[in-house]
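Exercise 7. Given the encoded structure of a 114-residue chain, write a plausible sequence.
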């Protein structure tokens, strides 16, 4: 979709640090790292939010979470947990209206908790 920043990232028009890619999804580092390794998982098909998913797309996207979570955790033995966050709608703090799921690693140090 025109003027969608995440569609531009998917198309390669805007650079990103890719974490994972297949036919249906792209995962890349968030430009604002809540903690190191903060990753966004997005469907390649433009949907604004959870309200626009059908079951097939939901399976293609959300079913990737366990493997992606394990892959992120495996990168650094200091990662002890992971928040998975999905904001839907401006009232729910969504700021980019191409659906995305945050994966936010949590470390041993309390300094990383935010
Ligand atoms: P939301 O608030 O919609 O749940 O999260 C949007 C996220 O997209 C934010 O964490 C923000 O840092 C991230 N973001 C916004 N623009 C870009 C960009 O151009 N590149 C990357 N990698 N992340 C972005
Ligand atoms: Zn888009």
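Solution.
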């Amino acid at each position: 979709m025109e003027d969608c920043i995440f569609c531009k990232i998917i198309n390669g028009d805007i650079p990103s640090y890719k974490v994972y890619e297949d036919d249906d999804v792209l995962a890349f580092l968030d430009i604002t790292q809540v903690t190191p390794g903060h990753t966004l998982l997005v469907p390649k098909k433009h949907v604004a939010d959870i309200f626009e998913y059908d079951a097939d797309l939901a399976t293609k996207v959300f079913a990737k979470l366990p493997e992606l979570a394990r892959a992120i955790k495996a990168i650094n033995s200091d990662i002890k947990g992971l928040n998975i966050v999905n904001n839907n709608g401006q009232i729910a703090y969504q700021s980019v209206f191409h659906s995305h799921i945050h994966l936010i690693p949590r470390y041993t140090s309390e300094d990383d908790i935010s």
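Remark. Residues 65-75 form the longest helix (11 residues). Students should compare their own answers with the one above.
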